[in-house]
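Re: export button greyed out
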Amino acid sequence: MTTSTGTATLSLQARAETIDRMARSDYDVLVIGGGVTGAGAALDAASRGLSVALVEMRDWAAGTSSRSGKLIHGGLRYLEQFNFRLVREALHERSLMLEKLCPHLVKPIQFVYPLRHRVWERAYVGAGLLLYDTLGGAGAVPRHRHLTRRAVRSLSPGIKLDLVGALTFYDAQVDDSRHTLELVRTAASRGADVLSAVKVVGLVKQHGVVTGVRLHDLEADRAFEVTARQVINATGVWSDQIQAMAGGRPMFHVQASKGVHILVPRTKIDSAVSMFVRAEDSVLFVRTWGRHWLIGTTDTAWDEGLDHPAATSADVDYLLRNLNRVLEVELTRDDIAGVFAGLRPLVKGSAGTTSKLSREHAVESPVPGFTSIVGGKYTTYRVMAKDVVDRAVKGLDRPVAPSDTENIPLLGAVGLENARQSFSRSGAARGLTQPQIERLLGRYGSLVADLDDLMARRPDLAKPIGGAADYLRVEPVYAATHEGALHLDDVLTRRTHIAIEAEDHGRTAAAEVAALMAPELGWDESRVAEEVAHYRARAEAELAAQQMPDDESAMRVRNAVRDVRLMVADRSQ
Ligand SMILES: Cc1cc2nc3c(=O)[nH]c(=O)nc-3n(C[C@H](O)[C@H](O)[C@H](O)COP(=O)(O)OP(=O)(O)OC[C@H]3O[C@@H](n4cnc5c(N)ncnc54)[C@H](O)[C@@H]3O)c2cc1C
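Workaround output, generated via the alternate export path:
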């Protein structure tokens, strides 16, 4: 098998070349923020024929876009708020992703919606799901169905039997950090210059017009400037910080709201399908995630630092309490394998609680040469990207083609069927099992051909990683050579999910993964030791934070370990 991902190969050498090019170029559009919104905007702009740069201060998707609920959905609860436009738009995006843009990464997922009250609840929920099916259009996922008490019993024996019945419906699920990364690489394949680990520390302005950004390269601890005719601020919960650099009088601000998820092993809940559970003041999704259940979320206002939000014991207790209301066999803290927290970037409104703030997005240009986008949700990233680029290009002095991202499959979706057939044969010849082959196809799509080439040259890479048997040794190597991973944490947390899936949170796998990355990134022994020690300290700090009662104390514990990207600057002082 062979593929050519060309400019989408995010190697160390490509990074150095990109920095050189960026310092010399004058871009049409520079996008700040390598989450799903910024990556989507970079792809949107590049595919319109514009010259584009995308910069990210940490790793691709290191902000909210690796910490979401991982659902590509219309949002049933927005139906209850009569927000039909948002639901219809999101369901259209769901169909596009499932059928055209990235079918390898987005998969349908079946939910059971348990009912506790006779007649009225079935009628109410049934009507909502009928509308959900209708708004979503036909075909992308099966339609909802009613279930009797006995049918629920056989599908989900783990659900408590004080239920009167259930309905079942479908939504979709995505590996968010891999999806965002693939968007970045697709943008690069369309000519965008993409660079991570560079922080925007200031905006360049001439006569009140934004004309570029000042960057701090955190890997080399040096500064440089990049010029652009239009700068887009797609920094999620950080947007107010960039906005403040631009000045002007913005109408919108962002309010962060924390959401926590837990993972428990699949064996702990006896159910063949995922569940939609009403919680005290919201809803919980209990969905399958590989060998685990992924359960969440909470929704609480957040006023602490933005870089490393931590879960508290109160967050975990809330999830367990609400989940246990519908389970035959109650779960305890000992059943939890992993925990992660993320911050929703909500458009600030006047309502009191953040769950009532808008999930819609807002775009504005308070200063010439500068456009900001805030709010939105993962599912609607493509629409957000189109809207912000439409606004930014109004400031260019030439006509620009309309957005065409509706017709642009991501890299791994191109040639997917051929890759499936070819890798089924070559993977088996390398000794991979059918589930391993399927798993790789689901994570990389047709890009699996790159990994196949690596395994052909080094058969040892086709073996599982010790302490994280669901992942193969080839994956950290590929992450370092093609996917822009610069640190051990990038691989254990976002290229793979070993950090939240492995029983020991990746402490065993860390040494082997670092050793695999080392030759590709030019690490010597002391650098390997430093990366492993940092990763283990970070994992310990997160576990300790989860024992703390409130956000303030949890953050004090979590922040004892600084971001891995600051190690370089620390070393040079
Ligand atoms: C708990 C939770 C569950 C969710 N569940 C879902 C769901 O199931 N489905 C759904 O559709 N949506 C969901 N969402 C919403 C969705 O995850 C977010 O809307 C989306 O990920 C936001 O992406 P973003 O690109 O705007 O922000 P981010 O992903 O946060 O990206 C912003 C980026 O900007 C970078 N940045 C910041 N400052 C600078 C700077 N100075 N220089 C350079 N870079 C900078 C950051 O490092 C960051 O990577 C959920 C959110 C949360 C928190």
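Residues 350-357 have pLDDT under 50 and may be disordered. The button fix ships in the next patch.
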